[in-house]
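Action item from last meeting closed. Structure (587 res):
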């Protein structure tokens, strides 16, 4: 990191807000060559606007003198852009201390962005191509909230970015450490609720189901704990005999840079990534349709108008969109490696633009599991998550925790991220929901024969620990909503639905809403009653630290010579079956 700026006086924080400046934390500037990395965007924008509006006239009136004048104007724009970026850089500082992260900007109009430690969700390190060539990186601090709720520190040296990431994550960890025990003692409990401690058997009696780890062999948490602590089981399952990030060649070090700490969970070889894209019918058909559409437009344009500059300019966005779509899918899994650390799952991905992300299991609100048709033979699966505070819809973003993984990698990833589903064997239950035909799965579906396609492709299953929604005709996908994360449940209908005896049900968590449409009225009301009770009690009477934790994450926190950690107790509920059940059985 750069040296502290002695001339910058700390600003006064708003009343009632803990300020990192007030605590005397030094403020730093980003790397001095940051203006060179950010200034080119201004130049490209100016050139794009001028040429897009005047390209035809510029080509018709082209002379050497005008070309030299244009180059001089571009050079002036470059100098102005660098000067403006340098001024912005000089008046931009950041500070990190035990209270949070603050970022100060502005020369005339000053602004201050502040991320208090209790609201920090995750920290990612991004390396765009130009910054990567210069040895720089951007640190993004995701803050709980809606929309673009993040704080960017751009750019610092790559080594300093890793140090800054660890520092911010350590600050975020301080927010929950001293409060967990107090919350467990002071939080009111409903009548009949079990205490937070207790044996696994006592807690199994309360929850109505014993949690099994997400392992392919169906072992219990106690059996999996030694192997998890040592790392032998997961490492062998994810990448037998190879860990290129730490001991590989120079090319391996380049591909898997920035992720060398922690226990290896998943590592995607390049050949598997390429084969998975060729087997993804949605990606293949989408690419072919785009290429054929652009080709058809070119043929029609040449047939009607002939080859001219205006036609090329009109089709230029389409020429860029197709390669960008293909390259984006490749980048989403290129060099992907995930490792489990003390602060959650850390992932690295990217070819030209690389990024590393950190996701803690307690922040996950929803999981989406996807398996296209041609992925069934090699038994590949993709997993993405919805994280509170992260609004990232791109496929190469932090939410894509496993672009294409084997069954062992799937079990290891979900074992460290997903709370137990409450069945005897969670991974076997998940596999059944993915592979079995929808009519053979017991659950809720549309009752009318009019919806004959949806009746054969969609089903909602209520498990003791989660609500699962299965969809898809050829490719199959699952939405998994942990019942502890439910924030709102609502039903709605219209005149036609009332006449047909149907209801629409919406189940919402932070950042996402699951829509279950056209359910039978009695089934929808019964499911609404069960989930509304979950939303009332599980979130109200439990602190976040008391929610069911992923089994492998709990086992990892246990020392090798201590018994494995038990799942915290839940409020007393009627006993629920360990197999998929309908809402009537859970009332």
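Sequence:
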């Amino acid at each position: 990191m750069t040296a502290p700026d002695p001339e910058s006086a700390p600003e006064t924080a708003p009343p009632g807000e803990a300020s990192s400046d007030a605590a005397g934390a030094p403020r730093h500037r980003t790397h001095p060559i940051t203006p060179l990395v950010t200034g080119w965007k201004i130049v490209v924008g100016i050139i794009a606007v001028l040429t897009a509006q005047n390209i035809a006239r510029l080509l018709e009136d082209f002379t050497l003198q005008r070309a030299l004048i244009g180059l001089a104007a571009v050079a002036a724009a470059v100098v102005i852009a660098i000067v403006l970026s340098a001024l912005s850089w000089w008046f931009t500082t950041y500070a990190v201390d035990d209270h949070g992260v603050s970022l100060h900007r502005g020369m005339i109009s000053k602004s201050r962005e502040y991320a208090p430690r209790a609201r920090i969700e995750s920290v990612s390190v991004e390396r765009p191509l130009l910054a990567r060539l210069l040895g720089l990186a951007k640190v993004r601090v995701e803050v709980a909230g809606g929309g673009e709720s993040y704080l960017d520190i751009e750019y610092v040296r790559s080594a300093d970015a890793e140090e800054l990431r660890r520092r911010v994550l350590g600050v975020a960890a301080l927010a929950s450490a001293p409060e967990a025990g107090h919350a467990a003692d002071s939080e009111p409990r409903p009548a009949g609720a079990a205490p937070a401690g207790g044996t696994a058997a006592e807690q199994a009696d309360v929850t109505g189901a014993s949690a099994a780890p997400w392992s392919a062999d169906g072992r219990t948490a106690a059996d999996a704990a030694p192997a998890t602590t040592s790392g032998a089981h997961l490492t062998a399952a994810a990448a037998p005999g190879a860990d290129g990030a730490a001991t590989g060649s120079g090319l391996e070090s380049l591909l898997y840079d920035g992720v060398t700490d922690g226990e290896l969970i998943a590592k995607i070889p390049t050949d598997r990534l390429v084969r998975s894209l060729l087997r993804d019918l949605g990606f293949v058909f989408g690419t072919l349709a785009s290429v054929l559409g652009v080709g058809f437009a070119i043929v029609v344009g040449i047939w009607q108008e002939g080859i001219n500059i205006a036609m090329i300019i009109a089709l230029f966005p389409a020429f860029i969109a197709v390669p960008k779509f293909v390259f984006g899918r490749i980048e989403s899994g290129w060099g992907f490696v995930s490792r489990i650390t003390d602060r959650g799952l850390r992932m690295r991905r990217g070819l030209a633009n690389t990024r590393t992300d950190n996701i803690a299991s307690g922040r996950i609100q929803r999981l989406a599991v996807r398996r296209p048709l041609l992925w069934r033979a090699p038994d590949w699966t993709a997993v993405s998550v919805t994280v509170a505070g992260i609004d990232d819809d791109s496929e190469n973003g932090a939410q894509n925790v496993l672009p294409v993984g084997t069954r062992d990698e799937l079990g290891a990833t979900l074992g460290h991220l997903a709370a137990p589903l409450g069945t005897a064997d969670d991974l076997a239950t998940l596999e059944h929901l993915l592979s079995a035909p929808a009519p053979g799965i017991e659950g809720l579906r549309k009752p009318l024969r009019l919806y004959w396609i949806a009746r054969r492709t969609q089903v909602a299953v209520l498990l003791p620990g989660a609500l699962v929604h299965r969809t898809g005709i050829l490719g199959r996908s699952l939405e998994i909503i942990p019942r502890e994360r439910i924030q709102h449940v609502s039903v709605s209908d219209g005149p036609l639905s009332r006449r047909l005896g149907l209801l629409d049900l919406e189940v919402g968590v932070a950042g996402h809403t699951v829509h279950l449409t056209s359910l039978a009225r009695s089934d929808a009301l019964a499911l609404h009653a069960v989930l509304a009770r979950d939303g009332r009690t599980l979130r109200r009477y439990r602190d976040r630290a008391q929610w069911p934790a992923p089994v492998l994450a709990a086992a990892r926190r246990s020392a090798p010579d201590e018994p494995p950690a038990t799942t915290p107790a839940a409020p007393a509920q009627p006993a629920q079956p360990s197999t998929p059940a309908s809402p009537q059985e859970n009332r």
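Note appended to the action item: The radius of gyration is 27 Å.
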